[in-house]
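# nightly structure sweep
# worker-07 picked up a monomer target from the shared queue
# config: single-sequence mode, recycle default, output format = structure tokens
# input follows
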Amino acid sequence: MKNFFILLTLFIPIAQAKGIIGSPEVSINTSGNYLISIQINNLPSLNENDIELNDFKSNDPLSETALEYLLFEDMDAFKRLTLALPVNFQDTYFSFRLRAGESNFQRYFYLFATEYS
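# output follows
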């Protein structure tokens, strides 16, 4: 059993290194916007035009009124996408699908706003 945990410990960094679209970090800025920051790894040539946001489990584009603004940052070692929900966001959850890069790496997000208030 001990050998199993040692082996598992060795494979965890390998599995994490292959992750392209990271888990979201949610915060609230001083203006009251929910900020959803997502780290994108292993796509050095990714630019803002390669990002696509769709409704959850759909190919429909995310509504233009769903976000107050979007910020794409190139941090050299990784890219960071930050989505700002409007100050008047009243729903209990926010969901969307993020596609990134020419290979269309994708990840679905379903976030409960009440967890961060």
